[in-house]
Every structure is written in structure tokens, then in C-alpha cells.
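@channel sequence for tomorrow's demo:
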Amino acid sequence: MILAVDPLLVDGIDLAVVLIVLLKAGVAFAMLLVSAMLVIWFERKLISDMQNRIGPAMAGPWGILQTLADGIKLFFKEDLLPARADRVVFRLAPYLSLVPAFVAFAIVPVGGDFTGGGDGTVSMFGRSTFLQVADPPVGVLFFLALSSIAVYGVMLAGWSSGSKYPLLGSVRASAQMISYEAALGLAIATVFLTSGSLSTHEIVVGQSATTWNVLATGIVPFWIFLIAGTAELNRPPFDLVEAEQELVGGFHTEYSSMRFALFFLSEFMNMITMSAIAVTLFLGGPAGPIVTQRLAWVWPLFWFFLKVMAFLFTFVWLRATLPRLRYDQLMDLGWKVLIPTALGWFLLIATLDIARDLGWPTVPVVVIGVLVLWGGAALLSSAVRKARAERLEDAEADRDERAGTPAGHGEA
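C-alpha cells (generated this afternoon):
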């Protein structure tokens, strides 16, 4: 029932339908895997150009031999298994991070003609279908569920290693991912409210008929999604998961060889998937002008690729530019800025929808809503400043008390 939205499945399932679904799944997996390897080279090459690094820029044509050498090194390294590790969970954890990235990409429409009221349907071997593996009615909730499952891969990897340093890294990584997932979900909820659908295909159709959701939702949810998505991916400046100076490498300290490579492959696959989801939810997906009717089916694929590349370039640009945040700054940004802002904006959009349905004037509703949000932000900011000042006073009092304690009368 969930998959019956695709016109391919409306008239029942036969051998041709099964083969087409398997073909779409195989092509999607192959494209995502190859794209992840190309993005590794793309990031190395781009950062080397931005930061004037010699290796990735000069080793082979366009620096491609640097990435090839690293892949060969990881493939032939010894696959270690710590003596105190939980063997089953230790081996399973990398796949718990890798599989959700691919499965989440299955709901992304990568092509199809959405111009002029088109519904994005394409003909494949005499059957009508969408250029996506599946289009469940709760597609974006499916994406949120899979992003939650990815947390287990990180947590179980640190716990199963049998060492305290990976465990500390996995706990901190899990706290980061869960915290920013709240802001991510609220930003996506604003898209639900504007589009009136949880289907990724229907969201793209709605944007092609009116305007992109980045404008329809007021831009703010888009920026929240971008920041929270960067933190979810553990990308700089939120890469506290891999703070080598503090955690000796983080949750994957005890991993080597291909299992170590799987974690980073999943990171790059997640980066591609998150970019594709952002394009789908906010930037119209593959929708775009058909410049010429000759090979018209290529243009949606081109626009989708171009939009995803813009996000990937942004992720690399942030990595090459921004320093890593402190952990208290990271958590403050998530809990004290992004979550309140996303929740307030969601309530504002909901109020506007109710006012539109009841026929209320839009301008007074917007003004009152903005004033309420501004007042709430001022109260929250005041509470945060007061709590910070009290903590500083308590810390100074403790320091003065310790400084005034006579020698030999300290703690036992």
C-alpha cells in the first residue's frame, strides 16, 4: 500500500514491474556509490586549491592519484579486531551507518518533466513510472526515521570497541546528532505545512506549480535545515565527532582497513543524500526550464545535478573556511538558537495558514506574529544571559574559596 503511489504499481505487480524496480534500485545504488567516490576526490581537490595543498592538487591528473592511493592503502591494511570488542556488533556497526544513507536516497526524485503542470512521469519499457526508487506517502518521515537509525551505527561502534575513548566519542556524537535532528525535523515540518504532503514527489510537483519552498516558507527553515544538516553529517565546523586532539579519533578509533573506510564512505553518501533531500524539499528537485525539446529528458537530470553540486560545493567551502566549534558552542547553537527559531517559525507559518483559511488580513497577522516571536526571542536571550552570569559568579566564588583555603585543609 505504501508503494502504490508510483503509477508503475497501480495495476498490480508482475515480472516486468519487479525487473523495473530492481533496475531502478541497482542504478540508484551504483550512481550513489560512484558519486560518493567522486565527491571524495572533489573535496580533496577543491580544498587543495583553496588552501594551496600540494598532494591532492598535483598527484596525477587533477590530483586523482592521491585519492586512488588512499583507497588502495585502506584496502590492503590489516583489519583489526580488538580483544575486548563485541565481535558481532563491532562488525555490524559500519553497515548501520552506510545502509540508511542509500535507503534514504531511494525516495528522491532525480528526474522527470515537471514543467507546464507535468507530474514527472516517465515511460520505461512501456510502463509509466517515476525516476525514483519509491514514493511512499510518508516519504520525508521515512527519511527522518532513517537518519535516526544512523545514530545507532555511531553509538554501537564506540560501545562495541571495548575502549573508553571510542565510547566517549560515540556518546558525544550521539548527543550532537540527536540534538540537531530536532531542529532539522522542525524545519522539515514547515515544508509539510506549506506543501500539504509528505510525499517527496508531490512536494516537487507543488513547487513546480507555484514557487520553491525556500521562498514559500520564508527562507528561515531553509537556513535551519542547512545548518542542522551540516551538524547531522558531522561536517565542519561541527566535526566534534572526529576531534582528534580530544578523543584520539572519536568513535572509530579502533577501526581499520575497509571497516574504517565504510564510515567515511557513509559520511560522503550521507552528504549526497542530505543535499538531494534539501534540493527536493526547498529548491524544486529536478524541476527547471526545458531549454530545447531535443533530449528533453536530460534537462531535469541536469538541473538536479547542478543543484546538488551547489550544496556539495558549499559543504566543502565550509570545511575549508571555518574553524571547529567548541562543544558548548555547538550545543548552545542547537538548543538555544536553532530549535527555538525553528519552532517559532513553524508556529508563525501555521498561524498564517489559519488566518488565510479564515479570511483574516495577512499584514496585521504577520506583524503581530513577528512581534510575538521577537518578544519570545528577547525573553529567551535574557534568560540565557542571566544563567551564564550566574554560572560565572558561582565559578568565581568557588575559585576564590579554593584560593583562600589554607594549605593542608583542602579536599581529602
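heads up for whoever presents: Strands lie at 121-124, 127-130.
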